[in-house]
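Protein entry
_____________
===
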Amino acid sequence: MKALLLAVLCVCVCGLAAGTEEDERLPNKCEVCKFLTTELQEALEKTGRSKEVLEVGEVLDTGKRRRKIKYNTSETRLTEAVDNICERILQYNVHAERPGSLRYAKGSSQTMTTLKNLVNKGVKVDLGMPYELWDEPSAEVTNMKKQCETMLEQYEEVVEDWYFHHQDQRLERFLCENHILKTSEQNCLKEMWKGDTGDKGGAEAADEEQGTTHDAGEL
């Protein structure tokens, strides 16, 4: 049983430690575009059915009325959706046990969940950082947020063109496939998460030993 505990901790802690070295794994352009468009499309879909009508323009002395436009086709809706959209990237975590772009997802990773369960059971796990910082955005995610901001600034006019003239296409296809990425750079767009296939029994087995400190170095 002790050998099983050490094996589980080695996989979890060593895998997580390797993922913190940002020079070895930073988000590529495909991944940045994929999650930028995911978040922006989602933000727009939340307001797409609004029946609100906006009045724009000034009332003149001639008595000319202000122009009315539908909110769901207005520039205001796009501006509100784009504003701080890249901040939403910070809600993602690194799921080091998943391949490719699937390593970025919201919610706690399988690895981190296992480690937290061990801590809750009294096992001391040393990741080289305070427990309070375990849920802070990683270097990878912070880098993706910065790349997102740069990409959005560079392709702002393309996003506006899609919004006003091409919403019959998915934003990912219009922006990423048609304007930003070469064909050889589009592989991550095809990667889809099909559910958790990990072994859920490891944490339960590891829970049985308590009071021991483990870190990546000793394992």
The radius of gyration is 23 Å. Confidence is low (pLDDT under 50) at residues 1-13, 15-23, 197-219.
